[in-house]
Amino acid sequence: MDRKNIQEVSKQKDSAWTLSGAKNTPESSTDSSEGEAASVGRQEGLAKTNIRYWKSRLLQGSYTRDGKKHQVKEWSVKIQHLGRRMTFALSTTNKDLAASKARKIYSTIVSEGWDAAEALFNPAMLVRKDDPSLGDFFAEVESKAGLRPKTFRNYQSALRTIVKGAFKIPEEKSRYDGRSGGAREWAATIDAIKLAALTPDHVQKWKVAFIRAAGSSPIAEAAAKRTVNSYIRCARSLFSNRILRFIKLSMPNPMPFQGIEMEEKGNTRYRSKINTELLVMAAKGELREVYPEVYKAFLLGLFCGLRRKEIDLLEWKSIDWANNQISIELTEHFKPKTEDSDNSVEVDPEVLTELRKLMAVSKTPFVLTSENQPTTKPDRQYYRCKLIFEHLTKWLRSKGVEAAKPIHELRKEFGSQVNQRHGIYAASRALRHADITTSTRHYIAKQQRVTVGLGHLLTTPAIQVVPPNKNAAQAST
After folding, report:
1. What angle do CA 343, 346, 348 make, to 5 degrees?
2. Would you state the torsion angle of the CA atoms of residues 445, 447, 448, 452, taken in this order, to the nearest 10 degrees?
3. One domain for residues 143 and 99
4. What is the pLDDT of residues 273-325, one digit of tens each?
5. Which helix (H) or strand (E) holds 17?
6. What is the pTM of this model?
């Protein structure tokens, strides 16, 4: 199929474009020898360097327009390599030439990569989906955007959640069944929806309904707005220009999040409710001897301001005992959240004294000892020290730390304590934020008390005061 044919098919908005296997096409049925060759090619398990293998893999497209099915005469082929799959139009009705071309494309992909193959054989030759599904879009983004696996999964999950709500797809328990295939089936249901079906109108209605479902409580409404903002921020990142420039799909117009506004954030600044002195005394008495791993996690959170993932994979070799520093750096198992996160944290010498005592009985390269090993699947949320974090979370809640994420609350308290002693800029550096805005908006509690200063007047004896104009009237008489 040449460029003209591709453009012609792309204009058929009401057409259903499909690809049929060679054995189901009129051409293959009229030539029994070729059909037999294709069948033999599959059965014999031929190598992909064999022309007969590719003859057995050829496809012919068809489309439906005005209720009538039309057959495309030129051959196409689907090629899969290293988890990526694409369909190439071969621009010929000759099966031998088509098979030869398919083999050449595959050889180029294997030897030089997908991008080189597309450039060599002309991007216009690539069959372009004119009505892609969400699944098609996800596959393109995952293979070309260069996102971290975990970041892509977060964005994908956010968009699926919005689509589920927008199209009122029922919630099923099987959605969370990763072992028996329920999660895959649920994802497939969402991914089958056409991308063009998700309009800004759908997204706006979902957003309003989600917030209304929170009820009339101002606290619940504020939480719902923050959740909505988080979903939208993640999902719309998939449609950024930085990503779309690589996507060879026909994108909808308007885009799903065009014109969608974020909700007012409200006051998200951290408000300290922790009595650090009492909390530290309790940790020393209840955790240090009995639960040393939980105690170490507590120290790294409150005294060093480390994130959960940083605590989980921190190694002893990252501690500079001589200079009282902990380095948050790239290791075999850990990659910092951002470039700014890749830095050193200044630590009180007393904290390192505590850690040094605990290191003496440690038998692993990690500061926190766990039976679990670091994950080899970076696209999933996984903590080596999950049980330790669960124990610490439960303990913190028992001490009155009622935040949704008690361990992260320790990091916020760390930032506020640094701010109180050394100022906002020092706190932002200690938290390793990219800019000071994040520090002030979310992490820094207002510790300094600023009052009108008139309270002492309420402790002085009361006296009777005569207005000046009344005194003047009395004097005149």
Report:
1. 155
2. 80
3. no
4. 888 899 999 999 999 999 999 999 999 999 999 999 999 999 999 999 999 99
5. strand 16-21
6. 0.57
